[in-house]
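Justification of resources, computational component.

The compute hours requested in this renewal are based largely on the per-chain cost of generating structure records like the one below. Each record pairs the submitted sequence with a full structure-token output. That output is archived, and it is also reused by downstream analysis tasks.
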Amino acid sequence: MRVRTLQAVAPVLCALAALGPPGCAAKRPGEVPVHPVKGRVTFNGEPMPYAVVTFFPVGRPFAQALKPRATADADGYYELTTYELKDGAPEGEYGVILYVPPTPPEPYALEVPNPPDRLKNAYLDPAKSKLRYSVRPGPNTIDITLP
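The structure output for this chain reads:
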């Protein structure tokens, strides 16, 4: 009886194996290639825990642009996400905006309160952001060091 079950299931298993491992599927229409981007956010040499980092393409309308983003961990380390968790960002020149909450974010909150920014909104306006970085093909390490 087990042999017959295996014989019936084998073609299905072979078909699934031919598709490849999860995450290796073809890109969706309109997606551009992304490259891994990770780094650390620091202010006066100290890590900025839970900083929300948003990269926006320079020279493109902010509202319409694809904006890779990440939330730093407790030690200030981040990895950008564009399409899938920690996949990176498309190649190009970016401005960066930062928001740093005074307390750790609630991981399961549906609505996030907008408490004061620890950086006093100094890096929140895309039009005024002086933070500029480049994403190149291949892995990128971009440390954001604030004075």
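The chain has one domain: 28-146. Helices lie at 2-18.
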